[in-house]
Amino acid sequence: MKKAAIKAINYYLPEKILTNEELAKAFPEWPADQIYQKTGIRTRHIAADDETAADLAFHAAQDLFDQSIYDAENIDMVILCTQAPDYVLPTSACTLQARLGIPSSAGAFDYNLGCSGYVYGLSIAKGLIESGSANNILLLTGNTYSKYMHAKDKNVRTIFGDAGTATLIQGVESEGELIGPFTFGTDGAGADKLIVKVSGARYTSEDEFLQGGGEKREDGFPNSTLFMDGPSIFSFTLRVVPKMLRALFAKTGLVIDDIDHFVFHQANKFMLDNLRRQSKIPKEKFILDMENIGNTISSTIPIALSNAKNEGVLKTNQNLILVSFGVGLSWAACLVKTTWDT
Ligand SMILES: CC(C)(COP(=O)(O)OP(=O)(O)OC[C@H]1O[C@@H](n2cnc3c(N)ncnc32)[C@H](O)[C@@H]1OP(=O)(O)O)[C@@H](O)C(=O)NCCC(=O)NCCS
């Protein structure tokens, strides 16, 4: 019986770097060191004006094919997780199929999720592979939240960065599960905690939004820019993440001692330190990787996995728990066995 396994992970960061010093110059009330103390982030990468999330995912995938034994010709499904598609239609995964030289016999689709997106992507890939519908899946993530942020909104500019990632997931012969089990959760009542209210089809302008009963933002920024209620997001994660971990342990029959590393969505260090303490995870098992990357939404987990693998922190045949949470509100976690070789 074939089981889905992660075979390779790669990522791409845009060239432009935004430092805390540059942010502190724009927002003198938040010195560079305070931004670092509060977020654990020193620099983040920002997409160029003419660079999109699909471009970032494209580079991550192209480099993966160039550097590894894997070939675009063998891909039979392309899945892109993004909240910044090139067009409302067509789906960006279709354009990436052509750009990457993936055969026209492959399926391709986007799905719209934020911080929980990578874990969801693994579950979709597992379902497709283990049901016999696909065997070589290219799971892409890409986001450019920087394009949604107001230049004067320090609340979001200190946290988010842009990135794209590519993960190859393949069906392999295995007795045991290599990805999964999973736990999921959703609280759409908290949708307004991290949102671009004037976007998509519901409201196309601030005027339309206000006429439809919407309110001006208290911080004065237009509703067409990214809004984040940081403290609410913080308390939501403390509410759901330790519970989700307990549910995953109950499903797997494992305990903390059985897990080699925990890779959480790299939201910000302040929040992760609190979640780690609450969940009683030892520091040495807890991967932190946001200092020079920032919070890249659905890309944080594959970036952290790729770096930890390249630094020798992750070894073959280890048990990992991946934990994701954020915009939606949406959360998901899963068990993964390290199986990738590049
Ligand atoms: C953003 C966050 C770090 C702020 O922490 P907090 O303790 O709730 O912050 P508060 O708003 O109460 O402010 C506390 C102090 O930190 C400062 N501060 C808040 N955010 C800061 C930042 N990013 N950089 C520097 N200083 C910051 C505030 O100005 C305030 O300073 P003061 O005490 O001198 O007035 C926290 O709310 C959080 O982690 N939220 C989740 C955000 C997130 O990860 N979003 C992505 C979800 S996927």
Structure write-up:
The mean pLDDT is 96. A five-stranded mixed β-sheet has the order 1-7-6-4-5, sandwiched between helices. It is α/β, with parallel strands linked by helices. The two termini are 24 Å apart. β4, α4 (92-99) and β5 (107-111) form a beta-alpha-beta unit. The radius of gyration is 19 Å and the shape is globular. The chain has two domains: 2-173, Peroxisomal Thiolase, Chain A, domain 1, CATH 3.40.47.10; 179-190 and 227-337, Peroxisomal Thiolase, Chain A, domain 1 (3-Layer(aba) Sandwich). The longest helix has 23 residues, at 230-252. It contains ten helices and 13 strands. Coenzyme A (COA) binds next to α2, α8 and α9.
Topology:
Blueprint (H helix, E strand, L loop, with lengths): L1 E11 L3 E4 H7 L5 H8 L3 E4 L6 H15 L9 E6 L9 H8 L7 E5 L5 H14 L5 E8 L10 H4 L5 E11 L5 E8 L7 E2 L10 H6 L15 E2 L1 H23 L8 E4 L4 H10 L21 H11 L8 E8 L3 E8 L5
Parallel strand pairs: 4-5, 4-6, 11-12
Antiparallel strand pairs: 1-7, 2-3, 6-7, 8-13, 9-10, 12-13
